[in-house]
Amino acid sequence: MKKVALIGVGYIGQIHASALSQIKNAQLVAVVDNLEDRGRKMAESINAKYFKNVDELLRNTDADCVDICVPTFAHPETAIKAANAGKHVLCEKPLALSLQDADEMIKAAKANNIKAMTGHVLRFWPEYMKIKELIDSGYLGTPIHAFCERLAVTPDWQVANWDKSEKFSGGAAIDLHIHDLDLLIWLFGRPEIVKAQGVFDPDNPKEGGFAHIFTTAQFKNGRSGFAEGGWAFKGAFPFTMALRILCEKGTVEWIFRAGKNIEERGQAANIKIYNKDGSVDTIEAKQTDAFFNELTYFIDCIEKNKPIEKATFEDGRASLEFALAAIKSAKEQSVVKL
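Above: the chain sequence. Below: its structure as tokens.
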């Protein structure tokens, strides 16, 4: 049994708390949130201790690890403090807002010999995992090109609207689009050439950063990728995810639409395989919650003393590098080489 301290109980923190409550070898023993009423309410509901800040937590807890779900701008300081206290760290994506901060987080994790993981949840999403397994099996031959998208309405669940500021969240290009950039890296490795275009937040063009962005990338061996992402949609537009991979022997495709805030993420949507001979196969992925899968993996790695191999801090840095290159390209209308 591993003891977990949850740092931040906003929208994503509550999703993590729900997932952790279902993991048999995890016990939530502490909650940190700067909004005392919200933090105490969560702590009482799970019979955990409440702490107002991270320093107080680290002085008074015997937790084995921390699950960091605070706003992005607070990730580096929080993760480094936890690492220096000897706690294993899972930090929600994006890892940080600058490569310098990401490097400092990686340095702290290595110096303290702790396990460190970035919350890139697509690597644990059943359909994405099934498609990655299919591609790696070679059934469709060599993958040539991947298309992915992530479309949403403007998030309305954040306190103080920190996500509406590029300075504090990175805008949609980092907070949302980074999911699919990480996916492309997972499929093809680090990109070599990046070109992007974007649309600034129409409601906050000076400070909000890109609200919609599309990025093309070239990878080794001539492989290419295209990712589109944005949260400028209005009204009841459903959260939409799609992945299509063109391979030498066919194409695999998955399209999924959830509720406004991904409430329906547990619903199944079949994966289609369009074979070269004209036949079409339909495959299903076993439906387990992606956040449960992610956190189970993290806890198991700690309990069994296994290295984190999926969604490492280094993976988090790589996806951040990709996102920053896309932002640079879109702002400067340039091609960025990595």
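The chain has a mean pLDDT of 94.
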